[in-house]
């Protein structure tokens, strides 16, 4: 029987609200790793090391050598909307840091057990402190520490039974984490990254700081990728159409793969752009006889006011002013590069 009175509306408990919001920001273990690594990059680290246990469900630990966190900030570190990166809404227009909303660490404390160890420059010892549901579990304890910050996320989604179950059945988050670190390491070539399984002697990703993008791609993706790449550049500076600068590497006609690898950074943010990906796949299918799927690394830089970074809860997508024009221009640049390199190759083979 349908009751005739409308259901009563009540206010949700804050802890329920926070856990729901956290579940959107931290969708799976790899989202936690992305937030932590971005925090380490924002802290100007030169070395970032990740350890993972059980695909990230038991443990994710990210250690960096960045600027650390002040002792007096520790009490509010994991509250929602506490950040050192943004003050006014207008700052969003010119934000250079990856983070800006002060939600990542807070979110993790609502769906996992978080322990932070940190030391700032010039201190004799660091501090260790654990958090639960946004608050410190006890006063920070003095401890030995080297430079930087280490953040430990344990028992992710311990309080979200359905999420934990679906993730346990798909054990592929470790490979997603590896993939993520490979992407970061070929963009941030002046930072060294490593990732390994807890207890393993060998790292599964290990990049060393270098000054050559191609060397970095070789060490991360292997020589079968790096020897088949062409350098690509494009830009536009006409304010009436679009303003951007792009450079990167794209695979040539000798490269063979079943799946597209598209590593895209826009204003140093690792993002996805399905329109650009599709545009490039079309060019490859039309231009290259073997119609392999491409490998693409691209870094696009736009005026900060032309990009809206606040359109997606995991910041996976951004929205761009004049996106269609930019995609068209890049598509044309890739097409002409592929044609000329393919002609050069045919010419070479006929000699
Ligand atoms: P956001 O990155 O959006 O500011 P987070 O919740 O990710 O929000 O982090 C909150 C704050 O904690 C950051 O603004 C930063 O000041 C500090 N922080 C987090 N991780 C680190 C780190 N690895 N090194 C130094 N400071 C950090
Ligand atoms: Mg952050």
Bound molecules: adenosine-5'-diphosphate, magnesium ion
Q: Which descriptor suits the 3D outline?
A: globular
Number of continuous helical runs:
9
Give the end-to-end Cα distance, rounded to a whole number of Å: 85 Å
Number of strands: 16
Q: N-to-C SSE series?
A: HHEEHEEEEEHHEEHHEEEEHEEEH
Helix/strand class: alpha+beta
Radius of gyration: 23 Å
Low-confidence stretches: none
Helix content: 25-40%
Which band does the percent of strand residues land in?
Answer: 15-25%
For the biggest sheet, the summary is: 9 strands, mixed
| Residue-averaged pLDDT | 93
Please explain how this structure is put together.
The protein is α+β, with helices and mostly antiparallel strands. The protein is 32% helix and 25% strand. The chain has helices at 14-25, 29-42, 104-111, 161-169, 173-187, 213-221, 223-226, 274-287, 323-350, and strands at residues 47-53, 59-64, 113-119, 126-132, 135-136, 141-143, 148-154, 192-197, 205-207, 229-238, 242-251, 261-266, 269-270, 295-301, 307-308, 319-320. Strands 1, 2, 3, 4, 5, 6, 7, 8 and 9 form a nine-stranded mixed sheet that branches. It is globular, with a radius of gyration of 23 Å. The termini are far apart. 34% of the residues are buried. The structure holds adenosine-5'-diphosphate and magnesium ion. The site of magnesium ion (MG) has 5 residues, from helix 2. Magnesium ion binds at residues 35, 38-39, 99, 104.
